[in-house]
Amino acid sequence: MTATEMRQSEGVQEPTPVLSFEDVVLTFAGVTALNGVSFTVDPGELFAVIGPNGAGKTSIFNVLSGVYRPQRGTVRFGDQDLIGRRPHAIARLGIARTFQNIELFSNLTVIDNLMLGRHHHHPYGVLAAFAWLGKARRNELANRNAVEEIVDFLELAQWRRLPVGLLPYGVQKRVELGRALASEPKLLLLDEPVAGMNLEETEDMARFILDIRDELGLPIVMVEHDMGLVMDLADRIMVMDFGRPIRTGTPNEVATDPEVVRAYLGEEHQVERS
Ligand SMILES: Nc1ncnc2c1ncn2[C@@H]1O[C@H](COP(=O)(O)OP(=O)(O)OP(=O)(O)O)[C@@H](O)[C@H]1O
């Protein structure tokens, strides 16, 4: 019996999911990237998606953030239907994303990159800002305060006035995470957050991801190849293979599933508890 089934048999009320993906099918000219993918993410949950190369992990993120429109299925975020919405509209609903490759303005400082993450929080256009200069100033101040809180939270103070391009890779990834947080999202999508990091950088990032879940209570969907990290951090894991989920469960449930082990045999990433 899975943990979910056990809770159900004990009559424990299941929380309303923050996100639900139902029977999503996505094809590109003959290639089926997602072939009937369903999952839910609960409030405050850290949900990881793993699978071999080409399994469909990035496609899930691209559907979620409005980059791809699936041919079939539903995607709901709270009471909103996401399918057919443009990426900026989805960001506005409160879904923030980090990318596999760093997408920051390398000439701008840490603070300025984080301020850009607040652009949804400028309720006034340029003209309105002239008319309501006082309000705009207060708004700017509120944005600066929010950014300073993120600088503290992610321990970025020593680099705050430096151009991001000069910073070590692990710190740049942290700034990118900070920029996603700056939009005050209700759901965070992390695309391979520790890719290319050394051990120390990975441990730091793992700590911040846990803090985001535990202290900010933010639900997270994470795609990640580092199996040790996924096993350590995730509340639940969905294992993808050839565009389909082959198992969704807790790290222990997934790691002992024969089909998962089979899908990973011969892969560089063995499913083991680190
Ligand atoms: N824009 C696209 N055009 C054509 N095929 C695509 C496109 N995007 C993804 N695919 C195909 O869909 C399948 C799933 O790709 P996806 O990038 O989602 O896998 P992934 O699990 O993220 O892989 P990786 O771990 O290598 O990033 C692959 O066969 C891929 O070639």
UniProtKB/TrEMBL annotation:
It comes from the Bacteria. Residues 19-267 form the ABC transporter domain. CDD domains: ABC_Mj1267_LivG_branched (cd03219). Gene3D superfamilies: P-loop containing nucleotide triphosphate hydrolases (3.40.50.300). Keywords: ATP-binding, Nucleotide-binding, Transport. GO terms for molecular function: ATP binding; ATP hydrolysis activity. The keyword ATP-binding applies. GO terms for cellular component: plasma membrane. The keyword Transmembrane does not apply. This is Branched-chain amino acid transport system ATP-binding protein. It comes from Kribbella shirazensis.
